[in-house]
Amino acid sequence: MRRRLLAGSQSELSASAAPSASNCCALCEREVQQLSRHHLIPREEGGRHGPTADLCQPCHSSVHLLLDNKELARQYHTIEALRGAEKLQKYLHWIRRSRVERISNRRGNK
């Protein structure tokens, strides 16, 4: 495998070092120390064995704070849809410029 990578073009080499190999949040695209698994369709809505995405803790907490499970299942069941969610725009603008690794659990403050 090493030979194939070395024989490839420079673009192939940089593609192999893409953020997917590191701890990159799927939503805010920041590199963080830890990721948590987010069910794109909430388990309560039948998504127990469905697709998941790795999110940093602040993003995961904020998604569940700002969107309820029915909205997540019906409208925001892909990362692209989550990135486009109107309710998340202000948060995403802030977090992409931030170095925050952890946010207190805010679910009860709705």
Automatic annotation (TrEMBL):
<keyword id="KW-0378">Hydrolase</keyword>
<dbReference type="GO" id="GO:0004519">
    <property type="term" value="F:endonuclease activity"/>
</dbReference>
<feature type="region of interest" description="Disordered">
    <location>
        <begin position="1"/>
        <end position="20"/>
    </location>
</feature>
<dbReference type="Pfam" id="PF14279">
    <property type="entry name" value="HNH_5"/>
</dbReference>
<feature type="compositionally biased region" description="Low complexity">
    <location>
        <begin position="9"/>
        <end position="20"/>
    </location>
</feature>
<keyword id="KW-0255">Endonuclease</keyword>
<feature type="domain" description="HNH endonuclease 5">
    <location>
        <begin position="25"/>
        <end position="68"/>
    </location>
</feature>
<protein>
    <submittedName>
        <fullName>HNH endonuclease</fullName>
    </submittedName>
</protein>
<keyword id="KW-0540">Nuclease</keyword>
<dbReference type="InterPro" id="IPR029471">
    <property type="entry name" value="HNH_5"/>
</dbReference>
